[in-house]
Amino acid sequence: MPVLIDNLSPGHHLWAEAEDNRAKTASEVPGALRRIVNIGLINNMSDGALISTERQLFDLLNKAAGKLPICLRLYALPTVSRSDWGKQYIRRFYSDDQDLLDSDLDGLIVTGAEPQAPVLTQEPYWHSLTQVIDWAQENTASTVWSCLAVHGAVLYLDGIERRPLQEKCVGIFEQEKKANHALLMGSPTGLKVPHSRWNEISEQSLISSGYDILTRSDESGVDMFVKQQKNSLFAYFQGHPEYDAHSLLGEYRRDVGRFLRREIEDYPTLPHEYFDDRAAELLIAFQRYAKLNRRQELLASFPADRVGMNLENTWRPSANCIYRNWISYLSARKAGRSAPSGASTFRAN
Prior knowledge:
ten-stranded mixed beta sheet, two-stranded antiparallel ribbon, 11 helices, globular
């Protein structure tokens, strides 16, 4: 069933698809709009990733929804630091956190944000984020927290501090399932998930605080975990199942640019199990040259086209499955009935 988006204008890049989806939903499935599942997206990503994040989650929800109609509503925290362009874009296409607090949503997705402060409680958006956490516990059936939003939520709710990694955890990591959980129902045995972060949360701290670990790997640590919070199941994704095939390439090129401009001292880590052998050879050769000729003009010769030719979204089947299960749970809660047999609860067995 196609995904609809509220309050879009013709200037938005998803407007035509969303309007086409609305027409299909109304014409092909009588009464579908009465069964619609309302999902909010709080997009805290940096200006450069605002549009790509919208696209990634629109496509993922569109694929995962199956026969369930979805209405996606876009929200932003006004306290997240943005450029003038970013502020204008948010004002034009997004509702703010106060509108969210007055909304009627079944589910919520909260993305991470670009760090601005040494500790999360000093971030300019911290108070707004804690308001969202409190609201989501009472007013959603389930909320998905992604990347840095994960770290903020567990810190606020249970006092669990994230800890810095010696080097960036970045790449595609095969995860081991640690629980027979409905969120993972039907997913591959060795599901793959992209990660891109400088911090992690202690697995033992999570377990001690009552969280159920769903997936992990020795290389990336904890990946997915859940905990029931009042009326809402909180699902935490330290990774990025929503990423498209070229997301990590774009982030890697961005970090190379930061190195060349001397904004960071260490050359960025090559993403794990992401590039094929030929692409890795090209990037290692570029790295050697960049370290010897460190100047920002060199970024123009970064071989993005050549190394991106054979990139594949190997994690999309797992992402579709996880989000399909999540949407089914939201729909079941909305209907005021038990979830289908085998998916009646999101607690681990």
